[in-house]
Design goal:
There is one protein chain. The chain has 204 residues and is an alpha+beta fold. Helix content is 40%, strand content 12%. It is built from seven helices and five strands. Strands 1, 2, 3, 4 and 5 form a five-stranded mixed sheet that branches. Helix 1 packs across helix 5, helix 4 packs across helix 5 and helix 4 runs antiparallel to helix 6. The two termini are 66 Å apart.
């Protein structure tokens, strides 16, 4: 059964390979603002992280800098930070563990955003508290980029001006299209026009 356990920060082993890059300054702002509800997730088979590498890196920096432990982090009697780690899941193989690590990051990335809804939400956050917006990883310029430019501010479309008159040559072949209600009517019309010497063909 999965459960959260507070583990000594220096004793948590990282994944052997982790291709995910992290925006560490934004992660730090987020932890400082909202605390640390979950620092990472451990694979019981390997004893290594499969999620939370960026968060643990930031927590290590904060502890090294002498910062106060954020909400959600406990401190042992000897001053070591105890961080909340999700436990109880075991991979079936090294490939399974690395697949979970990648999926844990890629599934949220690939979902994307509803840009209009995101812009509305960020605007409300910004109007309520500018520091809150900074902790989300966005700034006012990002909000502007999410909202399409007002079409009313767009320059008017150029008006075409008349150019020199051009002679249009008549086509070599003239034709008409007659729509028939049924296939029988089409066959009858084709036969009649052919009998009159017309060049005709059927369109399906």
């Amino acid at each position: 059964m999965r459960h959260i356990e507070h583990m000594p920060l220096p004793e948590i082993a990282r994944a052997v390979r982790n291709p995910k890059e992290h925006d560490l300054p934004t992660i730090r702002k987020s932890i400082q603002k909202w605390g640390c509800t979950l620092a990472g997730e451990l694979d019981e088979r390997t004893g290594r992280l499969v999620a939370g590498h960026g968060r643990l890196h930031v927590l290590e920096e904060m502890a090294s800098d002498g910062a106060s432990p954020p909400e959600g982090v406990k401190v042992s009697d000897d001053g070591v930070w105890l961080v909340p780690i999700l436990r109880g899941w075991s991979s079936r193989s090294d490939a399974d563990a690395e697949g979970y690590l990648v999926a844990n990051n890629s599934t949220s990335e690939r979902g994307g955003w509803d840009r209009g809804a995101l812009a509305d939400m960020l605007t409300d956050i910004y109007e309520a508290d500018e520091e809150l917006l900074a902790a989300t990883g966005y700034d006012p310029t990002d909000i502007e980029d999410l909202v399409p430019a007002d079409l009313g501010d767009a320059p008017p479309a150029p008006v075409p001006t008349p150019g020199p008159a051009e002679r249009v040559e008549p086509p070599d072949v003239w034709g008409v299209i007659i729509t028939c209600a049924t296939e029988e009517e089409q066959v009858e019309l084709l036969e009649r026009l052919a009998a009159e010497g017309r060049s005709v063909r059927a369109l399906m």
